[in-house]
Amino acid sequence: MHTRSAQLSPSATLSASTSLQRRPAARQAALQCRCLLSRFFPQQLKKPPELKALLDAIEGTNRGFSTTKEQKATILSCVEALEQIQRQSGRSTDISDGVNAVWKMLWTSEKETQFILKNAPLFRTQAGDVFQMIDKASGRLQNAILFPPAGCFLIDSSCEADGDARINFKFNKATFRVSGKDYNLPPFGQGWFETIYLQDDVRVAKDSRKDTIVFVRDGLPRDLSQECSD
């Protein structure tokens, strides 16, 4: 099985297996205040402090399912600040050209993903990394939740660009692989997601169901079904 870890700056290193660590209320308030202020005084910096504030805020949330209300408010405030910075920078072309990659999920507000991550032990397994692969040239999109050492929940979709930042998608196939067996599930929908912030190796997206996802780059586009193999 392929094992990769995200490469972030020392101050922003995050671990998918980090246990829940509640931050002091004062630090949460300071993070939220910083992000709220930045919405009114946006800064066009190469590496804006709002990005570090976001990565600090999602640390210890178990990729979303352990997020408290206070943490979620801070995270979403930081996301709004970064979205405003991206919009005012006029760097939409960078978003269009930069999303083709495999992305490792750091945090999500999506309930279904949170449920799988939290309840994987009920199925006698542990949730591993969560990836999204975007290849606009081939019109292919994959989303995968890994269950080490050789299992996964994999969704294959077709996709097409809709402007610089939005990608429309339609589910084609869903496969649950466990103990060397594949269980195919019927396709179940379509939608869109929009990259609202892209800086270096960090990407923030919102989707048609009003969820927010934070990713870190994990290399060039590749077939995620290979991640499920020994």
From TrEMBL:
Main subcellular localisation? plastid
Please give one Pfam family short name.
PAP_fibrillin
Q: Where in the cell is it found?
A: Plastid
What GO cellular-component annotations does this UniProt entry give? plastid
Q: Does the keyword Plastid apply?
A: yes
What keywords are annotated for this sequence in UniProt?
Answer: Plastid
Region described as Disordered: spans on this chain: 1-20
Q: Give all residue intervals belonging to the Plastid lipid-associated protein/fibrillin conserved domain.
A: 52-215
State what protein this is by name: Plastid lipid-associated protein/fibrillin conserved domain-containing protein
Origin organism is Symbiochloris irregularis
Per the UniProt record, the lineage of the source organism begins with:
Eukaryota, Viridiplantae, Chlorophyta, core chlorophytes, Trebouxiophyceae
